[in-house]
Design goal:
- The protein has ten helices and eight strands.
- With about 300 residues, the protein is an alpha+beta fold.
- It has a single domain, classed as Jelly Rolls (Sandwich), CATH 2.60.120.
- The strands form two sheets. Strands 1-6-3-8-2 form a five-stranded antiparallel β-sheet.
- Helix 2 packs across helix 3, helix 4 packs across helix 8 and helix 4 runs antiparallel to helix 10.
- It is globular, with a radius of gyration of 20 Å.
Length: about 300
Amino acid sequence: MDIIKLFDKPLSPEKSIQLNNKYWPFLKFTNLNLIQDCELEILSGSRKGGACYRNLMKLFPNEELFRKMLKRLGKILSFQSNFGCAVLDYRVNIAPLNLKNHEGDEKYFWQFISKNILFKEISCEVIKRYRLEYGWDITRLHKSVRYVRGEDGYQSCMTNFGRTSDFHNDEYKGITCIVYLSDVKKDNGAFTYIQGSEKIIRSPLLTAIHQTVSFDMKLSHWDQMGSLPLEFRATHNIGNFLEPDKAKALLAKEVVLEDVAGTVFMFNGQKLIHRGGKPLKGSRLAAFLTPEGLFIHKLRSFLATKRY
């Protein structure tokens, strides 16, 4: 099944990955024409202030949230990438690491990593990909180590909404590189993604609206959204809202990156539908490398928030 063809009309409920009424089957989408008109105005370069914008603003609880949504929309449209996920041809030798005694000690791991010549090569590869996708900039590489355990309580968020629970997109642009520092299987937090999902056509306006619901309104559960228009009732955790047939189609393209310690891969979290790092049992230890443009990209991001 070709999910790109299956989900090729983002503002048509039957063909959209973003419009779902799994929890409200008796309600109808009544604002699609308005959203479509506003999106056409935006993509054609029209400026804010018209009747379309005013009518859309009325659907928000207040004007401040509407303005926050427009800022998010500007950032989304300014940084686009269709890169998905790639396993790199590196295998880090972690044999010198004393895992048992330093499972949660980030400083210990970065002392090891900073001396490992292979990590320098990986860092260059990640920055190269970041610049290829978003343009050149002076780039900082953020580093972290995350140790998570099944007893930390991830059972509910990984199972409460069915088999696609916790599948999501990240809030902002970016390329993330992960290095497994322990052997990883599906049950102990393997990175999992939907192959080809980065190419699914989406509505930038709906993406901005659903991010606003998630990160500005702080709503995460469907039963908190009764006062919102049906088109707004979703979050960046897209898997929690999918209708059964759509969930089945995505799961047919599920890839679980089960592998040994030392495996290296990178992905585009804003476009690739993914989940991981939340063990149902056991534990997972992984290093994260995330590039950030320090000047040109920050300026682009700032100007983008002023555009609409």
